[in-house]
Structure formats: structure tokens, C-alpha cells
Write a structure and sequence with these properties.
about 160 residues, alpha/beta, UDP N-Acetylglucosamine Acyltransferase, domain 1, five-stranded parallel sheet, five-stranded mixed sheet, about 15% helix, about 20% strand
């Protein structure tokens, strides 16, 4: 039961009042339908049931609830390690459209995003399908991550490149 309460921000660093306001705004606007985590009212989570925040949610749940303007599309799955935090306006997209299909539906090949423990994703960063980031990776503000990087990387630029 405590895990369920923690998933909604109770027992983390998310104020209960903020959880209530975000939940009400989310319910009124229809945003983030199906997401089991508290989401900032100005953020959107698509296919929230495929978003997995691992561990106790230390910091990670708070980032989802406090960082506004984020867009998280977990169509093919997103897994985020414990202690990973992100800033406002972060975009994570795990499914691409197949332009060869007449209806431009998503590709049939699963391309999940996996982000390790204790990572930091800066404001306005974009993480694209199939990316795996190792533990303690830092993604600089505005970086566009198109490929995977090992643990302890510091990423900047478009496309993102490691500087450390």
C-alpha cells in the first residue's frame, strides 16, 4: 500500500497540495490519462501505463510532478532509474512513425528508452527512441539525444555528444 501512496507523491518530496492540484487539472483537461504518477498540469504523458519509474521514486516522481511543460510519449516503453531528475520542457519519445505505412502508424519494432539511476536531464532536452543512458549521465539543456551513452557521460549539443 505504501508503494501506491508513494507513486502518487505521498511520502516523497512532492507536497500533497501540489499532487491534488495536478490531479484535478489533469482530470479536467484529460491530459496524462492512464499515468499512475502525479504529473504537472502543464505536462503531458502519452501511454502512461508504459512509463516505469524504478526504485522508490526518490526524486524521480517529484520531477514528474514539479517539472512543467514536459512531453513524455511512452508508446514503446520508457524506464527511468531511481534518483533520476529532469528540468522543465523535457521531451521523451519512445515510438517513431513508419512513413512507409499508408496511415503513418508507429513502427512495429519496439524502441524503448532506458535511463539509468541518478541521471540529470536539463531543461529543453530531447531523448529519442531506442536511447539507453547509463547511470549518473548528465544531459545538458537543449541537447538532442539520438543514440545511447555509457554511465557517467556528460552530453551536450544537437545531436548530443559526450564531453566527459
Amino acid at each position: 500500500m505504501f508503494d501506491r501512496l508513494r507513486a502518487w507523491g505521498i511520502g516523497t518530496r512532492v507536497p500533497l497540495r501540489l499532487v491534488a492540484v495536478n490531479y484535478l487539472a489533469k482530470w479536467l483537461t484529460g491530459r496524462s490519462k492512464g499515468c499512475r504518477y502525479p504529473v504537472h498540469f502543464s505536462s503531458t504523458v502519452v501511454f502512461g501505463h508504459k512509463l516505469k519509474l524504478l526504485g522508490s521514486g526518490r526524486g524521480t516522481v517529484a520531477s514528474l510532478a514539479l517539472s512543467g511543460g514536459c512531453y513524455v510519449q511512452a508508446g514503446h516503453g520508457i524506464e527511468i532509474g531511481e534518483g533520476t531528475i529532469w528540468a522543465p520542457n523535457v521531451v521523451m519519445v519512445s515510438a517513431n512513425h513508419d512513413m512507409s505505412k499508408p496511415d503513418k502508424a508507429w513502427t512495429d519494432t519496439p524502441t524503448p528508452i532506458t535511463i539509468g539511476r541518478d541521471c540529470w536531464i536539463g531543461a529543453g532536452a530531447i531523448v529519442l527512441p531506442g536511447v539507453t543512458l547509463g547511470d549518473r549521465t548528465v544531459v545538458g539543456a537543449g541537447a538532442v539525444v539520438t543514440k545511447s551513452f555509457p554511465a557517467d557521460s556528460v552530453l551536450v549539443g544537437n545531436p548530443a555528444r559526450a564531453i566527459q
